[in-house]
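cron nightly-structures :: item 1 of 1
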Amino acid sequence: MTDAIAAAGASSPQPASRIKPFAPFEWTLALRYLRARRSGGFVSVIAGFSFLGVMLGVATLIVVMSVMNGFHKELLDKIVGVNGHIFVQAADAPMKDFDEMTERIRKVKGVAMALPMIEGAAGVSSPYGQTGALVRGVREADLEKLPGVAGNIKTGEIFGFDKVDEDHPASVVIGRRMADKLSVRVGDNISVLTARGATTPFGVAPRIKAYPVRAIFSMGMAEFDGVFVYMPLSEAQAYFNRDGEVSVIEVFLDNPEKLDEMRTKIQEAAGRPVILTDWRQANETFFNALKVERNVMFIILTLIVLVAALNIISGLIMLVRDKSHDIAILRTMGATKYSVMRVFLITGTSIGVAGVIAGTILGLVLAHNLEAIRTILNRLLHADLFPAEIYFLSRLPSVVDPREVVAVVVMTLILSILASLYPAWRAASLDPVEALRYE
């Protein structure tokens, strides 16, 4: 009799009528079959690779899904932190009544903030470089309410931003990436150039004017840190020839999910023909691409778990072949087909459960420490593994969604159980007479 059967000892099979499902001897045999033996060492190696496959598959799924969630949350927070949820633009005449319109919109229930501004494309330069920019004219009180800007000032200050006179020339607030590109600091001058300047008898002449840098912000999003230039609203009106008017009113909502409902209320509050657009329309292609990429990555990485499940099948089939003599003896001792099936079902499921537990722990540890790991790898490899110019963000985001972790765990456990069913059925179907014929 084999060592595994002998190890069952006192918990050896009883008559079929007295055998309870998942009896102690079934667990004893199943766990013994997972241990390495000289005769079945190769089977244990396959079981080990199956365990590693499940572990790595679960960990990779958790990490990748957390990163994709982090991308979505960070990009949404950054975009809405500097741009509103709804943008109100005039449909017929210039928006000269923006103060009254802004006040009416602010009174709409569900509106957190509304601010008027002027937007215009321009080129900015310094003695050390030049780049394109989106110039925004805003009031100091409104700029202080923008979480993406006021909450991320690194050097300088916004206080006194609106104070413009002979002793206090108009100043600008720029992003850190733009400051680095132009090699300027707080107090240095940058030149702002626009093609639509003063109107002359010979046409529209370009306008260029120098402004001192009052403050530098860093949102952590490369696209915004390198593009936006904020200047006082009154100065922007004069600079872009928009005297007494604004180009857009940005509206921030308490609940962005009620976007469609709020659009109707804001259009009524405007009191005049307006064009409404929202952040979903402005970034629809970007977020749709991110969603598609997330779903594709989930499908691709699920294949890792599926391959590990196939390894469980192959390992158990070889184990059944190797232990056919033991199975025959168990059957002659009174073990039922279902008892034998449960032994191998426990064996295969144990590999899956162990892999899921180890993979979940590894995945959660990596997901919560991705930025630290990235920093260490950058130092060791002397390379930038997450360039901000490509990925928009200056840090690697990660948000663990407990519901997704549970879904990954449940999916992997189901695959492990399904992978164990066929080999277990093969073992239960083994004819003890045929197995012992030549003994």
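cron nightly-structures :: done
Confidence is low (pLDDT under 50) at residues 4-14.
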